[in-house]
Amino acid sequence: MKRVAQGIGVAFFVLLTVFAAFFFWASGGTRSAGELATTTTYKSPPAAPSDTLSVMAYNIGYLSGMTNNQPVVRRESLYTANMSHVTQLLRRTNPDIIGFQEIDFGAARSFDVHQLDTLATRLGFATSASAINWDKRYVPFPYSADPSIHFGRVLSGQSVLSRFPIVRHERVELARTSRPFWSDAFYLDRLAQVTELAVGADTLVVINVHLEAFEEATRETQAREVRQLVERYADRPLLLIGDFNALLPSALNAHPPDEQRAFADDETLGILLEGTPLQPALPDTAYAAPMATIGTYPADAPSRTIDHIFYTPERIRALTASVPETPGVPSDHRPVLMRFVLQ
User: What are phi and psi of 35, to 5 degrees?
Assistant: First the structure.
């Protein structure tokens, strides 16, 4: 019996060692700290500034459509079709600046396609700034005994794609969640990505964010951190764009009752906006339209607007804003588009 017990103890120790080794290997990244924020110049020349400019905020959900985060096997054909859909959308709307969230830079879950470079070269953009927020050797999510549905190796993040030169780029990590360490080790970083673009004689500041989705208290803390960035640039032409995972307080009543209940205590955008000069691209009057017209999530039947564009009205004059219809459903989010002029 003693030998049996010793054998069980040795086997348990070996299994624990193997598991620990896998955990630390899988949760580790492949990029150095200096490689987490990069800029890229493409072959297309920068655009000449025009009187009217446009900006889009778009969480493309790594082109997984409505299967995002679901425990399903995805085919490469899904990503090929959705890349075509997004390309069609961007050709039709022709934005000068795009802030992407959840875009893959060559990940196993999206068949190793560098989604940003693919879109940039197809559409003739001049530059991009990328901020990696998820760099893991193996992510076992969605959690299942079937490894064929796991994300596996992930390299993903946020990016600003621009027709104008990018003169500065900064990756700012925001507050982390209160997840236990074994879960937090595989979770993505939440970021504010600060870029400065040379638009003629002006320097336009674009802050691209992706705030916490599941913990309200953490998201509110992140809002305070982003507000500090906003205050730093508030006297400049500034665009604050992205997936905020929060509703505008002034537009709460326009959302369906279940969404109102879910966000009733959420102070994220109140914390972020109150006392700042920022204005939303979609004004309160826009919420008189059906949510199917101005909602951004979920893309197949929108019931909430959680993706936003904000701007400084003293330096930027908004002309129009909309939630464009997308060919197919390439992401679980819809984009927001604003046309504007620099004052």
Answer: -100, 5
Joined together, the tokens standing for residue 42 give 């493409």
List residues bridging with 129 in a β-sheet: 39, 160
The C-alpha atoms of residue 260 and residue 89 are separated, in whole angstroms, by 30
**What's the pLDDT score for residue 7?**
64
Q: Rg for the chain (alpha carbons), in Å?
A: 21
125-168 confidence digits (pLDDT tens) = 999 999 999 999 999 999 888 888 999 999 999 999 999 999 99
* Res 14: pLDDT: 67
Q: Is 50 helix (H, G, I), strand (E, B) or coil?
A: coil
Helix or strand (DSSP H, E) at 79: helix 76-93
- Which residue type sits at 231? E
**pLDDT beneath 70: ranges in the chain:** 1-14
Look at the block and give the residue holding tokens 């679901």. 70
Distances (CA, A) of 252 to 142, 256, 331: 31, 9, 24
